[in-house]
Structures are given as C-alpha cells and as structure tokens.
Specification:
There is one protein chain. The chain is of the alpha/beta class. It has a single domain, classed as Vaccinia Virus protein VP39 (Rossmann fold), CATH 3.40.50. The protein has helices spanning 32-40, 58-65, 79-91, 138-144, 151-161, 177-186, 243-251, 260-263, and strands at residues 10-14, 20-24, 44-52, 69-76, 98-102, 117-122, 162-172, 189-198, 205-214, 221-222, 226-227. Strands 3, 4, 5, 6, 7, 8, 9, 10 and 11 form a 9-stranded mixed sheet that branches. A two-stranded antiparallel sheet has the order 1-2.
C-alpha cells in the first residue's frame, strides 16, 4: 500500500495488522471504546449494518475487516469526517464494504438504505452540551457532546432503521445508564445483554456495553464484569492486559462468559 497524501492537520496510525487510519490531529481520535464496541458485536456476515456517528470510521472498518457484516453504512454528520471515512476506506481496500453517508441521524429512514437493516451500532457523544470543558476545536466538541442529538435521538434512529429482531449495540457511560435504558424502551429496543467494563477489580466501571433487540421480550442478561488490566505486581511499571482484553484488541471478540448465547452450541458426541 502506498502512503496516502496527508493534510498538515492529519496523521496516519496503524491500528493492527489489518488496518491503517488517517486521523485529524485536532479531531477526536479512537480509543478503547472503539475496540470494545467492535468486539461486543456478534458477527452477521450476511447482514447490513449502520454505524451512527462514525468519526474516522474505525469501528466500521474493524467490523468489515473481521467480516462481522456484509456491508456497513458509516453515518457521520460532519462533512470533513465523512470525507475522511471515504479516504480511509480507499487506503484499506474496503470501499466496497464501508460506505460513508454524511447525514443527520435525526432525519434518517430505512428508505435511505433500501430497506430496514440488520444491525445498528454506535459510540454516541457521551456528554451533554452544558457539561464538561468546552473544547477549542469544534470537531472534537461535536464528537464528545450531544450537539446534533442526544442518546434518545440515537436510540430512536436505531429503532426506525432496524428490522424486527434486528440488534442495536452501544457503548455508553455507566453514570448515564438509566437514560440509555429509558431511551431504548421508548424506541422498542429491548436490552438483552449488558457488560460493565472496569480498568481493574478495584475500580468503578468506566464503560457499559449493551446489546438490544428490536421488538424483543423483556429479559436482560448481565454478564460478569470485564476487567481490562491484571493486578499490578510489586515493582511493575506498566500494566498488563487481561486475557479477555487481549482477545478484544487482537481478535475483535468477546469470548466465553461474556457471550453466553454463542457458547450454547451443540456438543458433538463421540461415537
């Protein structure tokens, strides 16, 4: 792959062995939340997915590169980032799998995708406009704050776009969990699986992951918590990821106890 032309305010990062990503130096760059969300989503290799609020497109690209969806529409309201998604799709050879769409999610309908979709996922802005320090760069402020829609708008959009039985997967702040659950219920999205994420066993949760089903019956499975780091040993300067966190970063999967339904597969008996 030849190196792409970068603008003065851009840089290119290697995400893993599969992906390279152009990012804006003053824009919101990807972090742990992106890997958590991409890994939490169950594969639907034949499904059509929509990401709401895509930023640079990192989650959509992880989804496509790991064959977790047949195609992904990456919806982003900021035109500069929608253009960046298109460039990132090109340099990674994923322009036939990931389609950027510059649009306001509050106005989206299934007609824009030809039909209702199988999966919607999002890492929404997690701060209200009147909270937190005002970032000097509008692009980063918009990515972090609910300037173009709050969590109720994200859930309502997912409810409109999904087919009956389709799934909505979201990463969110634990201190605003009740808002997310209420918004899901209002959009006919029934929470079915939830995992709290902690830095370690002594820390409060730093994120919550939820999978909901459109039209599902009430029945929420709360998994054991995910710990990102092993206990620090005496004299240890750097932190070591847990095996579960390594699976997330390296293989884009939540395994074992975090996805009980995936483990309920028939056991082949020996003759």
């Amino acid at each position: 792959m030849s190196l792409p032309h970068l603008l003065p305010d851009e840089r290119i990062d290697r995400v893993n062995e599969d992906l390279s990503l152009i990012q804006k130096k003053q824009g919101l760059t990807y972090g742990t939340d992106a890997f958590l969300l991409a890994a939490y989503i169950r594969p639907q290799p034949r499904g059509i997915a929509v990401e709401l609020g895509s930023g640079t497109g990192i989650v959509s690209f992880l989804m496509a590169s790991k064959n977790k969806a047949a195609g992904v529409y990456a919806v982003e309201i900021q035109e500069s980032f929608a253009e960046l998604i298109a460039r990132n799709a090109e340099i990674n050879g994923l322009n036939e799998r990931v389609t950027p769409l510059c649009a306001d999610l509050r106005e989206l309908s299934p007609a824009q995708f030809g039909k209702e979709v199988d999966l919607v996922f999002s890492n929404p802005p997690y701060m209200k406009c009147d909270t937190g320090k005002r970032n000097l760069h509008d692009e980063k402020f918009i990515a972090r704050h609910e300037v173009f829609g709050g969590i109720a708008d994200f859930c309502a959009c997912a409810g409109r776009l999904l087919r009956f039985g389709g799934r909505f997967v979201c990463v969110w702040r634990p201190d605003r969990l009740t808002e997310l659950l209420a918004a899901m219920r209002d959009a006919a999205l029934e929470p079915k699986r939830m995992t709290l994420v902690h830095a370690d066993a002594q820390s409060e949760p730093c994120a919550v992951l939820i999978e909901a089903v459109k039209g599902g019956i009430p029945s929420l499975r709360v998994t054991p918590p995910l710990l990102l780091y092993q206990p620090r040993e005496v004299g240890q300067s750097s932190r070591v990821l847990t095996p579960q966190a390594q699976d997330i970063y390296q293989h884009c999967i939540f395994s074992g106890i975090f996805d009980p339904d995936e483990n309920r597969k028939p056991v082949r008996k020996e003759p």
